[in-house]
Amino acid sequence: MKKTFAILLTVAWLFPAGSVWAGNLVIKGSTTVLPIAQKIVEAYMKDNPDVKISLSGGGSGDGIKAIIDGTTDIANSSRFIKDKEVALAVEKGAYPVPFAVAYDCIVPVVHSSNTVQNLTLTQLKDIYMGKIRNWKDLGGPSWPIVVISRDTSSGTYEVWESLVMKKERVFPAALLQASSGAIVQAVSKNKNAVGYIGIGYLDASIKAVAVNGIEGSAKTTLDGTFPISRPLFMFTRGWPEKDASSFINYVLNPEKGQLLVKEAGFVPLY
Q1: Is the domain of 97 the same as that of 114?
Q2: Which is nearest to 24 in space by CA: 56, 63, 51, 48?
Q3: Torsional sign, CA 243, 245, 249, 251
Q4: At 242, is the secondary structure helix, strand, or coil?
Q5: CA 237 vs CA 86, 96, 233, 263: distances in Å
Q6: Range of the domain at 33
Q7: Residue 95 lies inside a defined structural domain of this protein
Q8: pTM for the full model?
Q9: Which pLDDT tens digit goes with each residue over 169-179?
Q10: Could you tell me if 113 and 177 lie in one domain?
Q11: Neighbouring C-beta atoms of residue 255, cutoff 10 Å
């Protein structure tokens, strides 16, 4: 897997980087990637005042759909594109090109007053299937568990479904949220709650929980020991040209975009 990402990084640096074309870019997609994109877009437009960029969230699925439909230049995604999405894009005369732009780990979070420190992957799966309903069964307080999850259009949900749920569905009583920020808000206001977010969304209002005894961090993400880790992507509609090429180069530049990845709380590629 890491070899594939290295290839993507290598080919990215083949773009001509010496010129900037005046124009406009549209970027849509993942709310997980959004804090990274916001910082980079702001810095890029400051360095390139002739380029105007429109940025919005909505979820990885929405971003990839926009790439397929031709309504965005770049799609942010916290998951890789599906085979059926590639097939649909090709039918419409486009081929989505992926660029890994950062690494991330999906961290389970609870209310700051919850005494639970660690959960196994099996326990997380049982919580999200509705099999474990009280924190006392996990060594915590005698509180009913309120399960909070991302909606199914989210790339974070799909990675959680794959790595934690092992393709089992989250049980119907779970409360669905449209963004990682909404999960932070919901968990911070409910002492019974459990949720999951990208590492860049962690703050003092919630408490991170270790998984299988391993804390989510930049180190455990890069060395692969944290069990719910993933790359984050930007997709272009065909091989990027002009402003899109220049922007992707900026994102991947160790002295520019990758410094901002770290500032956003995520894990740089290098």
Answers
A1: no
A2: 51
A3: positive
A4: helix
A5: 11, 5, 13, 28
A6: 2-103+231-263
A7: yes
A8: 0.85
A9: 999 999 999 99
A10: yes
A11: 6
Adjacent-strand bridge partners of 29: 58, 76
Q: How far apart are CA 112 and CA 121, in angstroms?
A: 21
Q: Are residues 17 and 73 in the same domain?
A: yes
Place of tokens 């069964």: 137
> Comparing C-alpha atoms, which of 34, 33, 93 is closest to residue 68?
93
Q: Same domain for 217 and 167?
A: yes
Provide CB contacts within 8 A for 87, sequence distance 6+.
none
pLDDT digits (tens, 9 = 90+) for 51-76: 999 999 989 999 999 999 999 999 99
Do 139 and 125 lie in a common domain? Answer: yes
What is the C-alpha separation between 104 and 7, in angstroms, rounded?
19
Q: Is position 245 within any domain?
A: yes
In the chain (270 residues long), the average pLDDT of successive 10-residue segments reads 37 38 83 96 96 94 95 96 96 94 97 98 98 97 97 92 93 94 97 96 97 96 95 96 96 97 94
Provide the CA 38 distance to its chain's centre, in angstroms.
Answer: 14
* Strand runs labelled E in 34-95: 51-58, 74-77
